[in-house]
Amino acid sequence: MATIVVFVYLVVPPNGIKKEEGKEGRGVLYYTCCLFMWASMTDLALQGQRFGLFGLKSGTGYFEHGEPYLDTPFGLGVQGWNAIVNYLLYIHIIYNIDNNKDPRYTAIYWAGGILTSQFCVIVGAYSGSFATYLPPSVAMNIVFVVFPMWVFFHFLNKPRSDKIQAINSTKYRALDIFLITGLLVASFFMIIRGLGALDSPFPLTKYYVTTHEPYIMEPGKFGATWVLYGFIYGVPFQLFAIYGLLHSGCEWMMDLVVFYAAGMLQGTCVYMAYTWFPMSNPEYHIPQASMYMVIAINVFLVFISNLLLWRCFAEPQYFVKGKLKKN
Fold this sequence. Notes:
The protein is mainly alpha-helical. The chain has eleven helices and no strands. It has helices at about 1-10, 30-50, 60-65, 75-100, 105-125, 145-155, 175-195, 205-210, 220-245, 250-275, 290-315. Residues about 5-10 have low confidence and may be disordered. It comes from Ciona intestinalis (Transparent sea squirt). Belongs to the TM6SF family.
């Protein structure tokens, strides 16, 4: 770990670290990211111990006595994401701050991913089969909820460092129509899956869950909490995003789409990994007859959210507020 820190410091030396207008400076975000990098390495070490990697002796002590729900395909997927993706995001945030660059979107992207994982892990742990035994160490997750929420709202309330001239028309209207259609289709699938997680007797829901994504019914409830996240947060956001595409000046789109795209990518990757994970129960695997359709649906959900992200940053002047300039 120390070697990595020294390497990063030598390769990307700081050009300035003072807090300026539109910049972060070394503060709470900077030092907490440094601390959370150790948490990422801890997750990597636990994964190495769980599978006997990196020369570590195989063992499951922490999973048995610390956070037992992490010794599941979903929990190990979340750990893997934190060990690799979040670690890289911490480095990028630190790099931006050390070089007087705005870490806004990287920080929001990180917050979106980690809050999504925490929602699924905590709600699943307390509502599923692991709720009968949850040791005090579970409380450590509080910091991974409180701090990302602070980061998210900190940047929501902070003016952007980039000054962009607003416009009230767009050259991407054809793409917007495609996105609106895609968001409506995505919302439909999220509603069907969300109702399935709530054990709805609605025939279409029952058919889809039993023949396409039975993991939603897994007793650990991690699959159910992920689709509920899409149902509770994803559907409303996508409907608001449609409004944002049709009306210029919706500046909130720039931040919320980053948060949402990160959550969709993180959640879907971990969720879909269950089917191919050696520890997973074959009873809840995607049926072979539905495999390609389920993969296509989940890839589509990630694709449409990230295409929306690209759309917002391809023409940010359409979404910012200010004196309008005809495009």
